[in-house]
């Protein structure tokens, strides 16, 4: 009998009761805007900024409308000028090149390697070719490059590093949190990330000028002093007159439900990684599929898993994806010719793809499959999913034989 998996791959966890309670109070009060001119109390948004900055270990934080907006703020606040090139890894999600374009930058794509990390030789080459001052690094699907080497290279090339930590909130490289390597770290609190406010974003930095500019840009009117993790007033004096108000704040409701989730995040990370390891182990025995070993320095958050289907003919991959789908296991294929759902790759971004080349990335993505790991799944669910993947892969594998065990990361 062929087993079918019946749980949803898009089911988020409920919001903790404390958050539901606080959100209900706010709704009853009608006071949903973060700056209430008559209130002497700290707003939910300001408290979230304070608590998040403390959690992340950065001096300043700004709560805003989305992760993509946080990236825009970061680039503008770091001083990007219109028409300037911005380096970014060619495998990322569409809001990343979108943020660069929104602030008048020009995305310059950098290759990735087989383990989905940015290719540092290509980064150096393209930085020198373009004279770019900014590197917007997405830790895409939670894969963290060797941050010691990334940091050294940025220093050497004079690159301002902005980290897109949409998939690495709570992750570390050695003993430094993801997001604390560069000038700014940006986070998303969209429902499929590690904290869920529907939509939302957070920015964290230690740089007082970047923080002041980001707060003013975010649309703080003249309530910048109501922010929860902000620099001193004199820093705002430097930037106030010259900084436009580009509204993109976070509201009280979202801040309240995020505050209720922050204390439970470490436990959620533990549960994600437990599920990830079960899936990884299950996939190690799957013919035709290859996971990539994660380096011990990378303390990642396993909220999704990626693997290469390079033990089957390329033409078989979409059929394999469909076959898994019929048994309830939902995979995204990054080699898909058309953008689908959240899944697109750089040639689909016509507004910036022209004239760019990232052939190695294309080859890597051609065999890249991606699966979400909702916390609503238990460990037996993960075992069943791995079994289904292995059984279906066996039907498509090249030569019909058993494939080898995973190769080590490059
Ligand atoms: C989700 C995501 C973002 C931000 O997305 P928003 O929907 O704007 O919050 C940025 N980068 C990556 C890689 C993402 O997955």
Task: Describe, in plain words, how this protein is organized in 3D.
It is a single chain. This protein has 410 residues and is of the alpha/beta class. The longest helix has 20 residues, at 265-284. It is built from 14 helices and 13 strands. Strand 2 (85-89), helix 4 and strand 3 (106-110) form a beta-alpha-beta unit. Helix content is 38%, strand content 13%. The protein starts with 16 loop residues before the first helix and ends in a 14-residue tail after the last helix. The chain binds pyridoxal-5'-phosphate (PLP).
Q: Distance N terminus to C terminus?
A: 39 Å
Helix content: 25-40%
Biggest sheet character:
7 strands, mixed
Low-pLDDT windows of residues: 401-410
Structural class: alpha/beta
Note the run of SSEs as H and E. Answer: HHEHEHEHEHEEEEEHHHHEEHEHHEH
Give the overall shape.
globular
Features:
410 residues; alpha/beta; 7-stranded mixed β-sheet; 3-stranded antiparallel β-sheet; globular; binds pyridoxal-5'-phosphate
Set out the fold topology.
Blueprint: H1 17-29, H2 44-56, E1 60-64, H3 67-77, E2 85-89, H4 95-102, E3 106-110, H5 120-130, E4 134-138, H6 147-157, E5 160-164, E6 172-173, E7 176-177, E8 184-188, E9 201-205, H7 208-217, H8 233-239, H9 252-261, H10 265-284, E10 298-299, E11 304-308, H11 317-326, E12 332-333, H12 350-353, H13 359-366, E13 368-372, H14 379-396
Parallel strand pairs: 2-3, 2-4, 4-5, 5-8
Antiparallel strand pairs: 1-9, 6-7, 6-10, 8-9, 11-13, 12-13
Helix pairs in contact: 1-9, 2-9, 3-4, 3-7, 5-6, 10-14, 11-14
The chain binds pyridoxal-5'-phosphate.
Pyridoxal-5'-phosphate is lined by residues 66-68, 92-93, 95-96, 138, 140, 164, 166-167, 188, 190, 193, 201.
